[in-house]
Amino acid sequence: MKNFSNTYIFIFSIVMVVIVALMLSLAAMQLKPFQDKNIEIEKKQNILASIRIKSTVKDAVDLYGKYITDSYVLNNKGERQEGVEAFTVELKNELGKPALERLLPVYVGTLDNQSKAYVMPLRGKGLWGPIWGYISLQPDMNTVYGSVFDHQGETPGLGAEISTEWFQKPFIGKTIFKDSTEFVSIKVLKGGAKKDDPHAVDAISGGTITSKSLEAMLDSCLVQYKPYFIQNRHK
After folding, report:
1. For the chain, how long is the longest CA-to-CA vector?
2. Three-class SS of the chain
3. Which of 7, 20, 30, 74 has its CA 20 to 30 A from that of 162?
4. Closest by CA position to 118, among listed 81, 85, 69
């Protein structure tokens, strides 16, 4: 068996580490366009889901182009900001800024009956990691048209149920204003909401912490749009 000096072994190890690192970097660069495309498609699917349009990986881009007919970015006063594309705004980054500096994306869906639905992104903290989603409002800027929620690591069968249709569907028809100006958001109530409560839905049994985290997400994200809602509501 041939013996190698410590210097040879050290140099050989460094060379192998550099080669492997270069190969991994090259692979990452080649895969990035595909990863970015998958992220784009998933985002478009979620926005579509919030206006109750089902899509697949294959047809999401076409359906997005058909149903999402406008998008724009607001400041905290509800004023449109020029030169920024809504789709490029990452809410995770915006929430790290002071409230007065945040950019607030809005997506406008035009439905088959030509009515409009206005979509806002959501992001918050769950029990084990981030939770996020989209919620759409009817032209009155008060009544929920649809919603979609997801999570990174909530408990299967408990908090993870926020991503299921049975949990999301009851949000339809709920309202976020108690009167013309009093913003109350939507409560997620342990033990169940009253059937005639226009501002509440049932929490997940056994998933109280995630349910309340979602409630907090709705409140903290939607309240930022309050000036826009009040200024642009249509009967």
Report:
1. 87
2. CCCCCHHHHHHHHHHHHHHHHHHHHHHHHHHHHHHHHHHHHHHHHHHHHHCCCCCCCCCHHHHHHHHEEEEEEECCCCCECCCCCHHHCCHHHHCCCCHHHCCEEEEEEECCCCCEEEEEEEEEECCCCEEEEEEEECCCCCEEEEEEEEECCCCCCCHHHHHCHHHHHHHCCCECECCCCCECCCEEECCCCCCCCCCEEECCCCCHHHHHHHHHHHHHHHHHHHHHHHHHCCC
3. 74
4. 69
In terms of Cα–Cα distance, which of 155, 153, 141 is closest to 106? 141
**pLDDT (tens digit per residue) in 169-210:** 999 999 999 988 899 999 999 988 898 899 999 999 999 999
Task: Please report the pLDDT score of residue 235 as a whole number.
Answer: 56
The two three-digit tokens of residue 194, written as one number: 């009253």
Distance separating alpha carbons of residues 83 and 106, to the nearest angstrom: 14
Q: Which amino acid, 170?
A: P
Q: Calculate mean pLDDT across residues 46-58.
A: 96
Which tokens in the block code for residue 72? 């724009």
